[in-house]
């Protein structure tokens, strides 16, 4: 009724019995091949606009969405990562040759995917900078403070729009959550002691 289709694919199980995507580390599963075939299968069954196939995910799903931006940009036309990142190796070897719109949402106090990076994993500002440069956008952002509508969530948010002179109008948007944890902003599942920003809905 709203003229869009949403699909929630699952990754395979890792050694701990958790769902997991091969986003460039700790797996040999061909998830790029799987998701490419899934898109093809959905297109056979439904009326899908090739230019409006998007991917988003949280944590490992955010890593996977950014992996798709590098490796499947012929089919996935924009991505958004919430609490995900990229490996340093991916940034070095990103094979995507076209500009692609990217959104990154990340908390500065994320204990799972560290804001400043960790062994083999790039810091979030480096990831954002990579896509700004890759898309040919001006490096100076339009900065907007997100209204602090929930003053009890122990966090605030700032939006950075890199949208000037980008190739193919492929802007990069970054939501920086000060003191934000490994959570989905605006999410309804709130964990005790974990900071979830409630000023906007990711």
Tell me the helix content. Answer: 10-25%
Spatial order of the strands forming the largest sheet: 3-4-5-8-7-6
Low-confidence stretches: none
Question: Total strand count, please?
Answer: 8
Radius of gyration: 17 Å
Helix and strand content put the structural class at alpha/beta
Mean pLDDT, to the nearest integer, reads 95
**Coarse morphology:** globular
C-alpha end-to-end distance:
22 Å
Biggest sheet statistics: 6 strands, mixed
Beta content? 15-25%
Assembly context of the chains: single chain
Order of helices and strands: EEHEHEHEHEEE
**Total of DSSP H or I helical runs spanning 4+ residues:** 4
Word description of this protein:
The chain is globular. By secondary structure, the protein is of the alpha/beta class. A six-stranded mixed beta sheet has the order 3-4-5-8-7-6. It is built from four helices and eight strands; from the N terminus they run ββαβαβαβαβββ.
């Amino acid at each position: 009724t709203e003229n869009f289709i949403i699909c929630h694919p699952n990754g395979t199980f890792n050694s701990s019995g958790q769902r997991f995507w091969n986003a460039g580390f700790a797996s040999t599963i061909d998830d790029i091949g799987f998701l490419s075939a899934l898109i093809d299968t959905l297109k056979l069954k439904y009326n899908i606009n090739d230019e409006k196939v998007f991917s988003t995910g949280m944590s490992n799903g955010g890593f996977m969405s950014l992996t798709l931006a590098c490796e499947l940009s012929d089919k996935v036309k924009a991505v958004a990562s919430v609490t995900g990142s990229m490996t340093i190796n991916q940034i070095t070897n990103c094979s995507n040759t076209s500009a692609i719109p990217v959104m990154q949402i990340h908390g500065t106090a994320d204990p799972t995917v560290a804001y400043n990076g960790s062994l083999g994993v790039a810091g979030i500002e480096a990831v954002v900078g990579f896509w700004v440069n890759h898309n040919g956008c001006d490096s100076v952002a339009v900065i907007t403070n997100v209204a602090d509508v929930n003053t009890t969530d122990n966090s605030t948010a700032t939006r950075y729009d890199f949208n000037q002179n980008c190739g193919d109008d492929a802007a990069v948007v970054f939501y920086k959550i000060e003191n934000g944890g490994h959570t989905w902003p605006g999410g309804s599942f709130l964990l005790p002691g974990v900071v979830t920003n409630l000023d906007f809905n990711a």
